[in-house]
Amino acid sequence: MSKIVRTIANLATPFIFMFGLYVIIHGHITPGGGFQGGAVFASGIALLIVAFNAEKVQNYLKESHLSVIESSGALMFIGLAFAGICVTFFYNILIGSPLFGQIPPEGSNPGFIWSAGVIPLMNVAVGLKVIAGLSGIVLVMALVSSNVRIDE
Amino acid sequence: MTESLFNIPFIAVAALVSIALYIILTKRNLIKMVMGIVILESAVNLFLVTLGYRSGGATPIFTNAPQSLMVLPVPQALTLTSIVIGVSVTALMLSMIILIHRHTGSIDAEKSRKLKG
Amino acid sequence: MGIVVTLFFACALLMRPFGQPPSDMDDYIINNAQKETGANNVVAAVVFDYRGYDTLGEATILFTAVTGVVMLFRRTKEEIL
Fold first, then answer.
1. Residue boundaries of the structural domains of chain A
2. What pLDDT sits at residue A152?
């Protein structure tokens, strides 16, 4: 692509990544969460693939690493669901404890980050899964027409 | 009769569904069929979200919330799942169209009906 | 096909009016979500806590779709030689 597109992609990409991570982590206070923030992050990676060649992006972002990230996100989600198995399947176990367990007052209030039990950790797990999944789909479909062998 | 003229979101959903059915049933290009399926999926998401609206309601979030009624949160949660399912189905359909073009050389729906090896 | 389109538009005009949803289940969820889950965002509490099974199924669908797309574009050794 031309020099203007490459320069703007170099300048705008850190802000897109930072905004995506902000939407993922503040999922229990503001609108957003795991799926929405993961989609924002994956569209930042799609901007990199369009501006530079897909072969150059593949040198930095191999497919084996993406599958490791996605599998670890799925395992973390299931592990958090099984953590409260003594009561029922999806029990929120971290509410009273000092790690994430503050309960906000009734009615309208400014939000606290260290609240809401298991929900922020589940947001991070689903966010990792969506980032790796959508980036993998866009990268594989961009490499098809370049006749590049996809390694194991 | 005049109070049913305010159901404008439901009329919009009916219009979108009929346009999508017309596209899927009468076009022969495979990519236009995929576009029709995406429009149908968007119409269903719009219908789910506008089912749970209360008059004069606010967003169901307690951070700096105004003092009024709140909109129902459960249809919004179901729509979130439906959007992700639509993205996955679209990605798989487009990959199969690329493979069909590689094997038969055309993207006409009438020419790729023979089950050859 | 004209019959189907006419039936759709008739259903859209005869539905219940726009601002009055039919269910009362969400009153319990809105009133008790801050005490039981501790989250300010009621939609996030519904997606991950009250209806966690649906999110588990959706994560499985994402995983299956990504596996399918990557598998369809894999070249074996005899196609390259």
1. 3-146
2. 44
